[in-house]
Amino acid sequence: MTYDYDVIVIGSGPGGEGAAMQAAKAGKRVAVVDDFPLVGGNCTHRATIPSKALRQAIQQMEDTRDFRRVDYPALLQSAASVISQQVELRRSFYERNGVPVLHGWASFTDPHTIAIKAPSGLIHTSTAAGFVIATGARPYHPPDVDFSHPRILDSDSVLRLNVTPRSMTIYGAGVVGCEYASIFRGLRIKVNLVNTRDRLLSFLDDEIVDALSYHLRENGVLIRHNEEYERVEANDEGVTLYLKSNKQIHSDYLLWANGRTGNSDNMGLETIGLERDSRGNIIVNEDYQSAQPHIYAVGDVVGYPSLASAAYDQGRFAAQHLVYGKSDDLLVKYIPTGIYTIPEISSVGLTERELTEAKVPYEVGHSLFRSLARAQISGRTVGMLKLLFHRETLAILGVHCFGSQASEIVHIGQAILAQKGEANTLMYFINTTFNYPTMAEAYRVAALNGLNRVRGRSTSHE
To answer: I need a surface site. Which of 28, 77, 183, 456 has the fewest CB within 10 A?
Structure first.
């Protein structure tokens, strides 16, 4: 059978872009379908880029201590130029590689055919030998919460808020909740952070989580753990969150940041036998194949790890398997986590809790940023780098960072963690000459601190 395209990719976020570029460079006829009017997907338009640009603007305000013109809508505009630059860059990728972008909503009518409903309402069909679904995810909306009310927000609509609130309640203390708690408190907005669990970000190392909790509280964020909502009531004056513990929290706005749902509905997946879980994630195998072997799914629409960086690689690997029938590439064992709170957090590898449960004889090396010359020069002295390593072999087991540039600093440790044998030991950092003054010097300080613990010596860096 002759198809219109060899591969159709649905979605132009990181996962879709990775798949489309990989297939196009393999010489395949590729098209991308997206219901966004501009390429880039949720990552560019609704999530990563705008929220991180907003965070950067607030970080600069904190650095200069200039809060005279705090205006949330104006700060949102700081993201507009970044978004437009990203859109233009991504659009050029498709043009240079001869990949047409078809705008509209795609739904399957049979395993090799999709109907594309354009914004004008016109519908046309396209066929392909293979598909990659990369439609991302959206904020989860419980049915008993009225998200049509202007004072009840999610992580999409909060980026369209046209006023500066005096107070904000954030329900959900995961990555998104903690990031926005930092952002709004940086604007001197009163913040209530309601956590449904017993601690923040429990997948992180306990010491890093403790540092984040302390810093948020020091900055005035009120954190409530082990709470669940009973109901939400909103009116023109504000929002009241009623908790099952009989507490009531009133604020100008409520930001719901508790979970995400895969964008897989209204795509005709049921008609072609594709399975989804309760959160709308498409079920795939290790090669990202769905129940229909020629239809792949990648990125947030398949769930974990729900990272833009991972989605791009998943898209590449899925396209390799689709084109060649195999892919020798897999996601790296330890994917770095970047959390853009103020200060930010990043980690890769195992935590102390995991090592303790596995009965691994490990030791810890610390470097406190307040002791680093570069941190003192920049004025960003809050934070630390923490190395976990095997007590006997000195192999690096985990890298955890809290503070300025954490998401950059972690990659040095990631590179060493991925090495084999003697290349992955504490001695690399001890025997390597780092530029001075730099934040990277924290690795040498932490390594020496850890080695002295093993040898039972005191160190001035403790």
So the answer is: 456
SS3 track for the chain = CCCCEEEEEECCCHHHHHHHHHHHHCCCCEEEEECCCCCCHHHHHCCHHHHHHHHHHHHHHHHHCCCCCCCHHHHHCHHHHHHHHHHHHHHHHHHHCCCCEEECEEEEEECCEEEEECCCCCEEEEEEEEEEECCCEEECCCCCCCCCCCCEECCCHHHHCCCCCCEEEEECCCHHHHHHHHHHHHCCCEEEEECCCCCCCCCCCHHHHHHHHHHHHHCCCEEECCCCEEEEEEECCEEEEEECCCCEEEECEEEECCCEEECCCCCCCHHHCCCECCCCCECCCCCCECCCCCEEECHHHHCCCCCHHHHHHHHHHHHHHHHHCCCCCCCCCCCCEEECCCCCEEEEECCHHHHHHCCCCEEEEEEEHHHCHHHHHHCCCCEEEEEEEECCCCEEEEEEEEECCHHHHHHHHHHHHCCCHHHCEHHHHHHCCCCCCCCCCHHHHHHHHHHHHHHCCCCCCC
Q: Mean of the per-residue pLDDT values for the chain?
A: 94
Name the packing angle between helices 48-64 and 78-96 (round to 10°).
Answer: 140
Model pTM score = 0.93
User: Going by CATH, does the domain composed of 5-137+261-324 fall within 3.50.50.60?
Assistant: yes
Q: Give me the mean pLDDT over the 393-408 stretch.
A: 97
Mean pLDDT of 48-60: 90
Query: Domain 152-257 classified CATH 3.50.50.60?
Result: yes
Q: Is the pLDDT of residue 332 over 60?
A: yes
462, pLDDT greater than 50: no
Domain 5-137+261-324 matches domain 343-455 at the CATH topology level: no
Which of 3.40.50.300, 1.10.3720.10, 1.10.760.10, 3.30.390.30 would CATH assign to domain 343-455? 3.30.390.30
What pLDDT, on a 0 to 100 scale, did the predictor assign at position 455?
Answer: 86
- pLDDT for residue 78: 79
Domain ranges of the chain: 5-137+261-324, 152-257, 343-455
Residue 80: predicted pLDDT: 86
User: Is residue 99 pLDDT above 60, yes or no?
Assistant: yes
Structural contact between residues 173 and 193, judged by C-beta atoms closer than 8 angstroms: yes
